Amino acid sequence: MNPAGQVFYKMTGSGNDFIMLDGRYTQAANWPAQRIRDICDRRLGVGADGLVILTPVAPGQVRMDFFNNDGSPAPMCGNGALCSSRLAAYLEMSSPESTVLQTGAGPVRTRCAGPGHMAELCLPSFPVPKQLDIPLHPGETGIFFGIVGVPHVVVLTEDVGKVDLLNRGRELRGHPAVGPGGANVNFVSPGADPGAPWQILTYERGVEAETLACGTGTVASAMVAEAKGLRRLPGEWVTSLGIRLSVAGMLDNGVVTEAWLCGEGRLVYTGVVR
Known about the structure:
It is a single chain. By secondary structure, the protein is α+β, with helices and mostly antiparallel strands. The protein folds into two domains: 6-122 and 264-273, Diaminopimelate Epimerase, Chain A, domain 1 (Roll); 126-262, Diaminopimelate Epimerase, Chain A, domain 1. The protein contains four helices and 19 strands. The protein has a 19-stranded mixed sheet that branches. Strand 14 (198-204) and strand 15 form a beta hairpin. It is globular, with a radius of gyration of 18 Å.
């Protein structure tokens, strides 16, 4: 590491924010869990939902190492991947038109969408999330579980504005039905009219609180809605900040293929951490 300090890039994907590092000048071994917790602390550090290290590994291919803000590694993060696509192009690690991110969940095709801050990614195929036999709370109409890069619970609700996000999210995040590793929990509800975007709120494991957007959770939710005949693909989804993500894909015999997510990967500022 440069003795003068480590350059970082603060980025946001629809409010889901990250500290991004250039892996040509640092490596994951330099970032033990406590150091990640310190830099992600919103009062005593830079502040972020997670930390990402990008390292070019071959022409057009960049490895993405992702860590939650509690220091735990995770195989994939959708909004982190959108930010990675934009930053890889900005740092000339790859072409804006095509980057393959090597993630713990497999290779993810990405590309920058236009000259601004938008990006798109295509996820590897995955099974449609399955319904869980968990007692519903008032206002809930179904609970589903699937792995879209990382484990996700999708809760269909009548109105996300009435959800007790922290308590219900914490309860479902570690529910025995989702396995010992737990899962992110995504609460979704229809828009005000049939053509309006659906709304989504997320309780994220590893953060253990609400995050303002969840890319792979939005994809999981969109596939549940499509499979149940509630919301057709492609479609737009709106976060708690009112920012829109769009999802496309195809369902074939219970398997999702060509699942595309489009959202922002915006560079907010750069800095140096000592």
